[in-house]
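Quick one: structure for this chain?
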Amino acid sequence: MDISVFQKAFLQYKQSQKIDREPVNLYEPVTYILSLGGKKIRPVLTLMAASIFSKNYKEALPAAYAIEMFHNFTLVHDDIMDAAPLRRGKETVHEKWDINTGILSGDVMLILAYQYFENYPPEIFLKLAKLFSKTAIEVCDGQQLDVDFETRNDVSIDEYVEMISLKTSVLIGAALKMGAIVAKAAEDDAQKLYEYGLNLGIAFQLQDDYLDTYGNPENFGKQVGGDIIENKKTFLYLKALELANQNDAETLKKLYQKKDKEKEAKITTVKALFDAYNIPAHINEQIETYTHKAFAVLETMQINKTVKESLLLFGKSLMTRKV
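Got it. Here's what it folds into:
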């Protein structure tokens, strides 16, 4: 359960999957976004899950690559919708090329992801494809809710958690379950791994929200304060509204009702309000809560103690990450 072993195996497989097709303007952006690095959390989770139930975890490499391809497809389209200039410290696809190229290259990535399931026999293919289709629809549901929230002034924290569950954590749960499916694990074990991933995914996204506002720009790889600029109603914003006095709440609402040309001034003002109500401590408490919910699911699984400890350590590393 050495994570570095899974990372190395995945990167070697990824490098072997050259996309040498025409037209170049369709596939070059695909190669570009896949080359930008990133944490590779989802494919590593697929390989980890497979290794729990099978000695040959490398059988899960095509499924892991499908997850990585799909994840990057969502990033390309999300960046267009958010008008984001940076991804992992580099130009986003639509900035480097154009919006139309970003849309079409993202589309082909979704189809390429499905093709990797063709590496498996029919029974496994069917299970993977069903889970993948369900997950893809849920991710779209979550993305639409995220967009809807931008123009709503009555979003609750519970609604926000539901949105990030759909947009982010279902894919982490699916990454784990796919590894279990490839390794032919029992359905109960595969589902428990999914639930572990679901809770871990919520904690992961909350940590991402925190880093978007409080991260080090040199480490984070994205524009710090991007959620504030885009008026994203994250946990930070919603908790601040819940705790703020009337004047501060009105100030926050007004700031989030417009696209401010003075971006740095807006970020500074909003962060000061977050700090005034100790919002960083509140979000860190929630990150810990969902991480421990994930750990509670692990405790119900009849798996090797060393494996269980490795999954616990992995969860803790996500909870304290800086990038």
